[in-house]
């Protein structure tokens, strides 16, 4: 009886792992997405912290209200790199409200197989 219960438990755990349950403490098949940006300039939004390997990731970085109109898209440097500091292809879109720059939308079409970091820095000068 104990052996049957143990086998049943193992089968259930295996099924949950293969289903990709997001509430488990481990993340098989997913990679970590981290963000580096100035929270004084950009509003905090809920960008994805994990992505499935090879998936599309879409992120938004809206400016704080007090900085709308103060900065333009050319005032920032945007980098998307993996854990080996290798560039990851991404497309950057400017979010505009009329003629006023209000933030960025960044799309990473294939996050690859390793964790990535999306960083936005204000250019000096």
Question: What are the key terms here?
Answer:
three-stranded antiparallel sheet, elongated, four-stranded mixed sheet, 125 residues, 1 helix, mainly beta, Immunoglobulin-like, 37% strand
Quick gist of this model?
The protein has 125 residues and is mainly beta.
Tell me about this structure:
This protein has one helix at 2-19, and strands spanning 30-36, 50-52, 57-62, 76-82, 91-97, 100-108, 116-122. The protein is mainly β and 125 residues long. The chain has a single domain, classed as Sandwich (Immunoglobulin-like), CATH 2.60.40. The chain is elongated, with a radius of gyration of 20 Å.
Set down the secondary structure blueprint.
Elements: H1 2-19, E1 30-36, E2 50-52, E3 57-62, E4 76-82, E5 91-97, E6 100-108, E7 116-122
Parallel strand pairs: 1-7
Antiparallel strand pairs: 1-2, 3-6, 4-7, 5-6
């Amino acid at each position: 009886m104990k052996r049957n219960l143990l086998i049943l438990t193992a089968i259930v755990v295996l099924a949950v792992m293969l289903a990709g349950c997001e509430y488990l403490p481990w993340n098989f098949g997913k990679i970590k997405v981290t963000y580096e940006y100035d929270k004084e300039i950009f509003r905090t939004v809920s960008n994805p912290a994990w992505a499935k390997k090879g998936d599309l990731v879409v992120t938004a970085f809206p400016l704080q209200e007090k900085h709308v109109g103060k900065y333009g898209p050319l005032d920032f440097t945007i980098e998307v790199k993996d854990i080996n500091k290798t560039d990851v292809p991404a497309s950057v879109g400017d979010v505009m409200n009329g003629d006023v720059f209000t933030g960025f939308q960044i799309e990473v079409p294939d996050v690859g197989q390793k964790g990535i970091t999306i960083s936005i820095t204000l250019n000096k000068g």
